[in-house]
Design goal:
Blueprint: H1 3-22, H2 26-43, E1 51-53, H3 65-73, E2 77-82, E3 91-94, E4 101-103, E5 109-111, E6 116-117, E7 121-125, E8 128-129, E9 135-136, H4 142-153, E10 159-163, E11 184-186, E12 191-195, E13 198-202
Parallel strand pairs: 1-2, 1-7, 7-10, 10-11
Antiparallel strand pairs: 2-3, 3-6, 4-5, 8-9, 11-12, 12-13
Length: 231
């Protein structure tokens, strides 16, 4: 597949997957969101101790604002991405309800002021995802550039947690050199970890330890206890 053929294929797949997502009814979206919230809170307790970046929902994407509120209540700080210029890495600014907002790319709100921060984890929306954990976004390359830049300064950070619905699954997006895979993918089904270049579904009550270089006070994935009653 030539680069132009790949671009056109991704454009068509993006449109198809967004249309499928937009067609999901409100009650089902709420059920998906509730399940994803629960999976993330159970699997990544360390999110409560760091800076967590998330995105304002667009076109029926997973709505991380409910999770962000609970994380803030537990001690985390939350941040939103800011596009400064086309084809350039984004920055993140801390955000909480009541902060002044402006409108940016796709008319999505972002914090109008504030210093740039470097998140410990990023909850990244995906129009599609493949079996190797690669993400189909909106085609601008913003997240790939941003993750590459941040990780050049802080290897392994931010941990990339892709979020989407099972309906967005693809076999492959035919990843290119600039595509950065997610470390984890979370859907209504559960939590997947990227292991040996493929996504593996992690079953509770344990979550696999994070890759080398992720260990710190804000470590995001570690052993968790089973909360089922003893028999």
């Amino acid at each position: 597949m030539t680069s132009e053929e790949l671009r056109q294929w991704r454009k068509a797949e993006r449109a198809r997957l967004i249309a499928a997502r937009v067609a999901v009814d409100a009650a089902t979206l709420t059920a998906y969101r509730t399940a994803i919230d629960a999976h993330i809170e159970r699997a990544f307790p360390g999110l409560r101790r760091g800076i967590v970046a998330f995105c304002w929902p667009h076109k029926n994407e997973y709505d991380a604002r409910f999770l962000a509120r609970r994380l803030r209540d537990a001690g985390a700080r939350t941040a939103l991405p800011v596009v400064l210029a086309p084809r350039q890495p984004m920055i993140f600014r801390l955000w909480k309800p009541g902060d002044a907002m402006a409108r940016g790319v796709y008319d999505i709100p972002y914090p109008a002021a504030g210093e740039a921060v470097e998140p410990d984890a990023a909850i990244v929306p995906m129009n599609g995802f493949d079996a190797a954990g690669y993400r189909l976004g909106y085609g601008g390359g913003y997240f790939d550039r941003t993750l590459a830049g941040l990780r050049a300064r802080r290897p392994g950070r931010p941990v990339a947690i892709g979020v989407s619905f099972e309906l967005a699954r693809l076999e492959s997006i035919d990843p290119q050199w600039f595509d950065i895979p997610m470390d984890y993918v979370v859907t209504e089904r559960g939590v997947y970890e990227r292991q040996d270049g493929r996504l593996a579904l992690l079953e509770p009550p344990r979550v696999a330890p994070p890759p080398d270089g992720y260990s710190s006070p804000a470590c995001l994935a570690h052993e968790i206890k089973d909360d089922r009653p003893e028999k």
